[in-house]
Every structure is written in structure tokens, then in C-alpha cells.
Design goal:
By secondary structure, the chain is an alpha+beta fold. Strands 3, 8, 9, 10, 13, 14 and 15 form a seven-stranded mixed beta sheet that branches. It has a four-stranded antiparallel beta sheet with strand order 7-6-12-11, with no helix packed on it. Strands 1-2 form a two-stranded antiparallel ribbon. A hairpin with a 2-residue loop joins strand 11 and strand 12. Helix 1 runs antiparallel to helix 3. The two termini are about 20 Å apart.
């Protein structure tokens, strides 16, 4: 017999939670599939010399060295001169689970990031990048732990080798500090993605595949979990599909 909580039964609550999980799962799977397609598009394309990028329209993919354009930033923990960074501050906490056992996890106390327009340069020239709307693939440059507090920074610093894929844009389309440059690499519908990665094309593709795979796996787990929840909570549905033993 169902326990009634007001006018809502336990089964109804279980079904509602399951539906939300299933919707989220489908969304994550679709997001991951789109991510795979974008990663394949990046893999199939090749970076061009920056000197030729100005003659291109639409998608621009380049590799080179990150250099200061008009200003640099200071990272919050390492006080390093940088062009883009993210940071996090976490505290190690022990919590007791339902079985009475203690589990350790890192709780985020503070996090954030910032970026500034910069140049990417190779032997053929340089082009500005406005990374404000980009997905940034940053390498960890600073990590410090004092007691139960851990601080980390991931950055792109002047002199780092980077890979950029985005869309050629006109400088009149942005308020970014681009000095006298007429065009820059930014976000746009014509590009499969807008990413700035500390490293080369291989690192970019690997990061994209990794995120997409994680999304698909998590989404599939939520959908499967929803199916199990429905079949175990509603034996009639399981019987209708010839499923037993749940």
C-alpha cells in the first residue's frame, strides 16, 4: 500500500525525481554527442600560419606563442603575470555517511577566473584573440596546500605555446582592447567551437573528447537509473515489458 504524503504518494515523488533525472541524462548525452562532433571537426582541420589567417574568413585555427597585447593580469595566489587564469580554494572535510563511516572530500570555498585579450604569434605574424567567450584549456601552474586548505591556479602566461580555434571577427564588433588591430579571433556561429588551449591541437582534441565522454557516461547512467527506478517502483510496468527479478 502506498504511503500518502498529503495528496502525493511516494510513487509519484519517485516518478517525478526519475523524470527529472532522465531529462537531465538525455540532455547530457546530447551535449556529449555534439561535443564529439566538434572535436572531430577540430581534428580534421589543420592550423594555418598566422600570416595567412588574415586572408581567411569564417573559422580560423592557429598555433603559436601567447604574448601580451595591451595589458596583463595578476593571478590571485601566485601573483604571476598572466593572460588568462582560473583559481580555486578548497577545504578538506570529513563527513560521516549513513553507514557511520567517515568520507573525505574537498569542498570549494572560492573559485573564479579572468582573461585579457592577447596576441598569438608565430614566425609569419600575430593575431589578437579575445578569449572572453572562449572555453579555456588551462594547465595547472600553481598548487599549494597548507593544512586542510588547498589553493590552485591554472593559467596561460606570456610565452606559453597555445592552440586557438574560433571565428575571424571585425574589431568594430567588440569593446575589447585590441589596439589598432582591425580583426581578431573570437566567438561566432561559423566556427565549430571557440577554444583557447595551453598546448597544441592534440591537447585541444583530447580535452574535448574527455569532456564529451564524461557527459555521455553520466547522462547514460542517469537514464539507466531512471529506467531501473521506474521498473522497480512500478512492477506492473516491468511485467508489461516482460522484465522480472527487479
Amino acid at each position: 500500500m502506498s504511503t500518502v504524503i498529503g495528496p502525493v504518494t511516494e510513487e509519484m515523488l519517485v516518478l517525478a525525481v526519475g523524470v527529472v533525472a532522465a531529462i537531465l541524462g538525455v540532455y547530457l548525452v546530447l551535449w556529449g554527442v555534439i561535443g564529439f562532433r566538434r572535436a572531430i571537426a577540430v581534428w580534421r582541420s589543420d592550423p594555418v600560419p598566422i600570416g595567412e589567417a588574415y586572408r581567411s574568413d569564417g573559422t580560423i585555427e592557429v598555433e603559436g606563442t601567447a604574448e601580451e597585447l595591451s595589458r596583463t593580469l595578476r593571478s590571485p595566489y601566485d601573483n604571476a603575470r598572466t593572460l588568462a587564469y582560473s583559481y580555486s580554494k578548497k577545504r578538506k572535510e570529513r563527513e560521516q555517511n549513513e553507514d557511520g563511516e567517515y568520507e573525505t572530500e574537498w569542498k570549494t570555498l572560492d573559485s573564479g577566473g579572468e582573461s585579457a585579450p592577447f596576441l598569438v604569434t608565430d614566425d609569419t605574424g600575430s593575431v589578437p584573440v579575445d578569449p572572453a567567450a572562449a572555453t579555456l584549456g588551462l594547465d595547472t601552474e600553481y598548487s599549494n596546500r597548507t593544512g586542510d586548505i588547498k589553493k590552485t591556479e591554472s593559467r596561460i602566461d606570456p610565452g606559453d605555446g597555445i592552440h586557438v580555434i574560433g571565428q575571424k571577427r571585425s574589431a568594430v564588433e567588440t569593446d575589447a582592447e585590441l589596439d589598432d588591430h582591425r580583426t581578431y579571433i573570437g566567438d561566432g556561429r561559423e566556427a565549430p567551437t571557440f577554444r583557447v588551449t595551453d598546448g597544441g591541437e592534440l591537447e585541444t582534441v583530447a580535452r574535448m573528447f574527455g569532456r564529451s565522454l564524461g557527459s555521455v557516461v553520466l547522462g547514460a547512467a542517469l537514464v539507466v537509473g531512471f529506467g531501473y527506478l521506474v521498473l522497480s517502483s512500478f512492477p506492473g510496468i516491468a511485467a508489461a515489458f516482460g522484465v522480472s527479478g527487479i
